[in-house]
Amino acid sequence: MIDEIQLIEELKSDTKKEQAFRALITLYKERLYWHIRHIVKSHDDTDDVLQNTFIKIYKNIHNFKGDSKLFSWIYRIATNESITFINKNAKRLQTTNEEVQQLAINNLASDVYFEGDEIQLKLQEAIATLPEKQQLVFNMKYFEDIKYKEMSDILETSEGALKASYHIAVKKIEAYLTKN
């Protein structure tokens, strides 16, 4: 197992960059896939955003300063790419981000890659009713069990604010599921 410092050095090296990047993809591809999937919902869209994320990482690794963990930096890129994707879709469809998310949820039931049942679908509907930041915090905590400290690095927000966002999100989801 390659350590993070060595991986970063190799990613920034002209001679070892390709091999190190393949190792990075192997290391993070699945976790990033599910992180992005919880945001954009669709498998095909997730693949596109994941590819864009890795391209951005590859092109910008030399800008990584080491102020946070490599994992946090990569997740921030994946999160931003996901949000950018949703914003572009909303603009292209001349609608709101919320409506784009609702459309994605409506399409989940017919998505051959969606393995959830009716309860999972209801949970996704409830999550889609949350403001963007609460969605991100809820998904990271509930589905990925990311610690508040790491989340703080990824979203560049205080741990206290994240805890409050998560608590509020849980209450809103509970209320939605009770009503629907």
Automatic annotation (TrEMBL):
<dbReference type="InterPro" id="IPR013324">
    <property type="entry name" value="RNA_pol_sigma_r3/r4-like"/>
</dbReference>
<dbReference type="InterPro" id="IPR039425">
    <property type="entry name" value="RNA_pol_sigma-70-like"/>
</dbReference>
<dbReference type="Pfam" id="PF08281">
    <property type="entry name" value="Sigma70_r4_2"/>
</dbReference>
<dbReference type="InterPro" id="IPR014284">
    <property type="entry name" value="RNA_pol_sigma-70_dom"/>
</dbReference>
<comment type="similarity">
    <text>Belongs to the sigma-70 factor family. ECF subfamily.</text>
</comment>
<feature type="domain" description="RNA polymerase sigma factor 70 region 4 type 2">
    <location>
        <begin position="121"/>
        <end position="173"/>
    </location>
</feature>
<dbReference type="InterPro" id="IPR013325">
    <property type="entry name" value="RNA_pol_sigma_r2"/>
</dbReference>
<feature type="domain" description="RNA polymerase sigma-70 region 2">
    <location>
        <begin position="24"/>
        <end position="91"/>
    </location>
</feature>
<dbReference type="Pfam" id="PF04542">
    <property type="entry name" value="Sigma70_r2"/>
</dbReference>
<keyword id="KW-0731">Sigma factor</keyword>
<keyword id="KW-0238">DNA-binding</keyword>
<protein>
    <recommendedName>
        <fullName>RNA polymerase sigma factor</fullName>
    </recommendedName>
</protein>
<keyword id="KW-0805">Transcription regulation</keyword>
<dbReference type="InterPro" id="IPR000838">
    <property type="entry name" value="RNA_pol_sigma70_ECF_CS"/>
</dbReference>
<dbReference type="InterPro" id="IPR036388">
    <property type="entry name" value="WH-like_DNA-bd_sf"/>
</dbReference>
<dbReference type="InterPro" id="IPR007627">
    <property type="entry name" value="RNA_pol_sigma70_r2"/>
</dbReference>
<keyword id="KW-0804">Transcription</keyword>
<dbReference type="InterPro" id="IPR013249">
    <property type="entry name" value="RNA_pol_sigma70_r4_t2"/>
</dbReference>
